[in-house]
Amino acid sequence: MVPETGRSIDPELLFTLQIVHARNPIAQGRIGGSGANGEFSIRIQCYFGELGTGMRNGKGTKAMFAGRHFDREVILLCVRWYLRYKLSLRDLVEMMAERGLELAHTTIMRWVQRYVPEFEKSWARYARKAGRSWRVDETYLKVRGRWVYLYRAVDKEGNTVDFRLSPKRDVAAAKAFFRKALRTHGRAPISITLDGYAASHRAVREMPSENEVWKHTKLRTSKYLNNLIEQDHRGIKSRTGPMLGFKRFDYAAITIAGVELLRSIHKGQFALGPLRLKDQAAPAIWNAVLAA
């Protein structure tokens, strides 16, 4: 049976989902809708692991995905997988096609650009503060064939402090990164560990002149201690490698923000206790955070 939405699903997959639904009375009571559209919603949610998870349908979540041709579960899955795993957009298109969903790689790209800022806002409400001993370094990415600089910092436990993509690597860029990190956490670090790049050292020395909260921050240089941030760069570089570069700086900045968000989630940097999500799978956790 083909749903009224016009999207066909593999018959073997439909048969499997019908069995799952028939054996899940809890799911039958929770999923609304009737006719082909209701059945399609049940099948999609069964397949992507949404039934029986206590998903919350908040007004904010509904508004976020209003007017989209595809169900929000499909959108969330594609965006999450693209940002977390070493997949290209066309890899995801092929994976969805095997599940009976036809979409273009540009569609997924637009989803990433549209929803990453919204996801950041939702998850930020549950973010734990990072430690106050920062390891700061820069790494490199290509945008339209030119190198740009990704400023990043982690604390001594390896938790991400903040990040900022910059077209330049100079004193002004370093200061902009430190200002952003201060806004994010609301407090200056006790110590900042840098490599030998002079512009970053100068930026730290000059920060107290524009904000007194920096006057007690200790500046130090240690290649050994900065191994932590250099190793953490690998998680970002390994993910951006399959993306084969970016065409626009703003697209790159949003995509990197999404990659950093998924990395922080993987590190356990969010306090989700109030949501009571112990032992829940990723789809249920995401739905609860977005609906809260």
Name some characteristics of this structure.
292 residues, alpha/beta, Nucleotidyltransferase, domain 5, 2 domains, five-stranded mixed β-sheet, 5 strands, globular
Strands side by side in the biggest sheet: 3-2-1-4-5
Strand proportion, as a percent range, falls in 5-15%
Largest sheet: 5 strands, mixed
Question: What's the structural domain tally?
Answer: 2
End-to-end gap = 35 Å
**How large is the radius of gyration?**
22 Å
Oligomer: single chain
- Sheet/helix structural class: alpha/beta
Taken in chain order, the helices and strands follow as HHHHHHHEEEHEHEHHH
Number of strands: 5
Estimate the helix proportion, in percent: 40-55%
Q: Spans of 5+ residues with little confidence (pLDDT < 50)?
A: 1-57
Coarse morphology = globular
Average of per-residue pLDDT values: 83
> Helix tally?
12
Q: Could you characterize what this model shows?
A:
With 292 residues, this protein is α/β, with parallel strands linked by helices. It folds into two domains: 11-125 and 272-291, no CATH class; 133-265, 2-Layer Sandwich (Nucleotidyltransferase, domain 5), CATH 3.30.420. It is 50% helix and 12% strand. The protein contains twelve helices and five strands. It has helices spanning 11-22, 25-30, 35-47, 59-64, 72-84, 89-97, 105-124, 171-185, 198-206, 227-240, 249-267, 282-291; strands spanning 133-143, 146-155, 160-166, 191-194, 218-221. A five-stranded mixed beta sheet has the order 3-2-1-4-5, with helices on both faces. A hairpin with a 2-residue loop joins strand 1 (133-143) and strand 2 (146-155). Helix 5 (72-84) crosses helix 7 (105-124). The longest helix has 20 residues, at 105-124. The two termini are 35 Å apart. 28% of the residues are buried. Mean pLDDT is 83; it is low at 1-57.
